Amino acid sequence: MKTMSYNTIAVLLVALMLAIAGQGSASDTTFLDTVKAATDKYDGRGVQQVQQVVQPTVLAKEEGQSGPFRVLARKQEIGRFVCSSCHDGKTVLAQNATNLTHGDVVVRHGQEGSGLACVDCHHPEDRDFLEDKKGNKIDYDHSYQLCGQCHFRQKRDWLGGAHGKRVEYWAGDRVVFNCTTCHNPHAPRFAKRFPATYSVPTN
Amino acid sequence: MRTPDNDHENDKDPSCPAESLSGDSSRRAFLKNLSIGAAAAGAALMTGCVPGADAAANGEMRLRWQEFFKKNYRLMTQEEKDATVDRLERLAALNDDLDLQIGSEPPLPKVLYGYAFNITRCEGFMECVTACIKENNLDRKTHTQYIRIFEMEPGQLDPSTGDGKFFHEVPVDNKFYMGTQCFHCENAPCTKACPTKATWKEPDGIVVVDYDWCIGCRYCQAACPYFGRRFNWGKPEIPRDEITTKQHYLGNRLRPVGKMEKCTFCIQRTRKGRLPACVEACPTGSRVFGNLLDPDSEIRYVLKHKKVFRMKEELGTEPKFWYFID
Ligand code: SF4
Ligand code: SF4
Questions:
Q1: What is the Cα–Cα distance from A129 to A135, expressed in whole angstroms?
Q2: How many CA atoms lie within 13 A of A21 on its CB side?
Q3: B118 C-alpha to ligand 1 centroid (Å)
């Protein structure tokens, strides 16, 4: 009689535990399931305060995961653009070039020992353009087309949104930084420097 | 119920003579004054006029009275929210001569915020930290920071093993950097610990604090497994010209002393479609922010295409903050 009741209790306990475990797995839906289920395009028109980005932009020549997007323009950032105002067919002495405009250019781009030369990216004849390895003329505003031929993984992430960043707004039309907005194309690694601040132990 | 316009009229009522109030606008000071002049204050509320009270002080007294007895923000109607931010703006103008724009923007429909942090890209420059301090009016004296950046040994993924107090040239070769802040847990243990329901999760996923209902018991801080919350030991000291005047009731408004505060995903910005200050300031693009319910958003791209993980996932807190690698 006594053993019987012990057995009954044991069985009941096991049943109870199973029930609890079963419940646990049944309620295993998380907010991530809601996130994954959200497949409708977001209509950002409700976010009224979003304004136009003030910096000059161009429509990207490729599509991101969300379709067309804009990228910060580059040309207005280049001192003495257009290049053909000097490179107009006549010979430019290397010495003059250094004095006039290219003196600050230090190329630290590419493998150590076999760094890149100017014409690896710049168009050898038409200096107002860049040139990729297939010989396509590339506009300075669309330099991502050039960078992407080597840095294709970064470019893929940039198109999707895991590399680089948006300008000012998460909502509204997608406007992103160009490669050259952040990276100096001649020395694309960020220089080492001191942090902007320091931390003290918090409470 | 008095409308703000009525208050203005009464402020100018010449039939209400002078009574001086201390310039200290803390709750405690208010209570102290109250115990001295409770009857008078009661009369002020009833009639809008204290015998022997100066018109301006009388108006201020009424604003403070109404502020003191307001509801928890979560229970207010939009009209009540508008009224309280209006009172707070007017009190800031009266007491500190500050011209603030305090908002009470509600959550945007069909938006759930998410955040991702690229541990391959962060180089420890801490521009995010300074931007956050400035944007959110953090106390400069105690050097309060919502974000912490840890310098980590390769292979380690727990910030408690890292150095959170580095100050040398960065990045150091063979180290990587990892940021923490409030992770806006979907299943936030901090909100359950609060005895006054002064902290809760908004429908857009932001975990907020009603600073005026917070009693400073710090239970939420103890409950947070991520070290996401900060207690302000003093009235925030900020140089006048550095105060961010565009504020939100649940965000960067100037907190009274003894309150719990933390990252709010910059609610004052994000509810207007802007990026959080830290995301905007990051020079390396390590910080990705967006709408989790938008299949086209950058954050969804990261979740879908990158190797992501969350901190202490096993706790079931469901942070809406992911780390990812390139
Ligand atoms: S990180 Fe901490 S403070 Fe933020 S929601 Fe989670 S438990 Fe709360
Ligand atoms: S989202 Fe805003 S409040 Fe949060 S850490 Fe970034 S800057 Fe600070």
A1: 11
A2: 6
A3: 20
Distance CA B320, CA B202 (A): 13
Tens-digit pLDDT profile for residues B57-109: 778 889 998 998 899 999 999 999 999 999 999 999 999 999 999 999 999 99
- Show the tokens assigned to A132: 């990729």
B149 interface with A at CB cutoff 8 Å: yes
Tell me whether residues B230 and A202 touch, CB distance under 8 A: yes
> Cα angle at A127 between A122 and A129, to 5 degrees?
65
B73: left (phi over 0), alpha (psi -120 to 50) or beta: alpha
Confirm if A196 and B318 have CB atoms less than 8 A apart: no
Decide: B184 in ligand 1 pocket, CB within 6 A. yes
Identify the residue whose C-alpha is closest to ligand 1 atom 7: B224
What is this structure's pTM?
Answer: 0.83
Taking the CA of residue B141 and the nearest CA in chain A, the distance in Å comes to 12
Size of interface A-B (CB pairs under 8 A): 161
Q: Does B312 touch chain A (CB under 8 A)?
A: no
CA neighbor of B234 nearest in space, from B218, B255, B205: B255
